[in-house]
Amino acid sequence: MPLTRTVLLAAALPLLLLCGNAALAQSGPPPAWDQLTPAQREQLIGPVRERWNGADAQERGRMLEHARRWQSMTPAERAEARHGMHSWKQLPPDQREEARALYSKLRTLPEAEREALRERWKQMTPEQRRRWAAENPAPPRRESRGP
Known about the structure:
Helix content is about 75%, strand content about 0%. It is mostly helical.
């Protein structure tokens, strides 16, 4: 299977699993890829193709890397990743910004300082976290990425 098709499949299938498909759920287990109609395949791949075609080279590289990582995950790791994506989507925008700021800062610190900041973060009040995030903003996000 060509790499592009593999990438599209790796990105589209988790989306199907996350979103669900009532028609497929009612008619038993979903068919194998080879049993899907061309319209069903297009329904799965179309959104990924549009995102790919609209992405710059850096974003495409990121998409490929995410697809490679997804394929290497165990079912348990994939379930954990889905849970994390769901949790992230539920966060209010201000808490997402706080998380981005914290993660950005943690990436720059040696292990001992990272652990100290994590512990300090756990002790902070919501107001202290907001203030810390405002004083230590994450770098600007690229436009092509989602929330």
